[in-house]
Specification:
The protein is of the alpha+beta class and about 240 residues long. It has one domain: Jelly Rolls, CATH 2.60.120.260. About 20% of the residues lie in helices and about 40% in strands.
């Protein structure tokens, strides 16, 4: 009976000794310090400009919180659509995940409209949205079944001006069922009711994972401990 208890204790000890956690960032060039969109995919339609701006940047938005480079879309000469996205893999053995970014916008139109589309040429559309989508989704999809997590969406009645602010939220529950799969991190803007400038910076998804060794490694470790403990137990007996 004592030896069975010893075996169970050793197995538990082996797991506790070898199990560890690791932290990782999933986003490439989330702070845009390359001065360009390296690591990102972009799509631009209509009369706007997409660029990475330095320091003080666009007069309507001002400097980002870290006073460095940031992504920008705006200065429209006509209706437009701007989409930025990055594909990342949700790690296995996920313990936690956190999504954060800084953003600002200036809507020069009369207000916001948020139809369930990113099209800008067939319905009134003046919106900015940030979401995580299934990896199998089209980059411009707004289908609810494709949206894993919605971080931000402007809506009618919101203030036209948003000075630089930060978003930070735990998204573990949204990603647990997607371990080992791709997801799309997307920033999207559409406007056809007047110029609409957006900026974002310091995009990050940080994850914590459990690292557990192969069963064979655990077995060798456990057998070694059990052998030593058994010898000591037999001597006492």
């Amino acid at each position: 009976m004592k030896f069975k208890l010893l075996k169970a204790t050793v197995a538990s000890l082996a797991l506790s000794v070898y199990a560890s956690s690791a932290f990782a960032g999933l986003i490439t060039n989330g702070d845009f310090e390359t001065g360009d969109f390296s690591g990102w995919s972009v799509s631009q339609s209509g009369g706007s400009t997409q660029t990475v701006l330095p320091a003080s940047g666009d007069p309507s938005l001002g400097a980002s919180p870290t006073s460095d480079f940031y992504a920008f879309a705006g200065n429209q000469s006509g209706p437009s659509q701007n989409i930025f996205w990055q594909s990342v893999v949700v790690p296995n053995n996920l313990l936690s995940a956190n999504f954060s970014f800084d953003y600002a916008y200036q809507n020069f139109g009369s207000g916001f409209s948020s139809p369930n589309t990113l099209a800008f040429n067939n319905v009134s559309n003046q919106q900015f949205r940030v979401e995580i989508l299934l990896g199998s989704s089209l980059f411009d999809s707004v289908a609810p079944s494709d949206i894993v997590f919605s971080a931000l969406q402007t809506n009618p009645g919101d203030n036209n001006t948003q000075s630089w602010t930060s978003f930070n939220q735990n998204i573990t529950a949204s990603l647990l069922s997607l371990q080992g799969q791709n997801v799309l991190v997307r920033f999207a803007q559409a406007d056809n009711s007047g110029p609409f400038d957006i900026g974002f910076d310091n995009v990050s998804i940080t994850t914590e994972t459990t690292s557990v060794p192969e069963p064979s490694t655990l077995a060798i470790f456990a057998l070694g401990i059990m052998g030593l403990a058994s010898r000591k137990f037999n001597k006492k007996a």
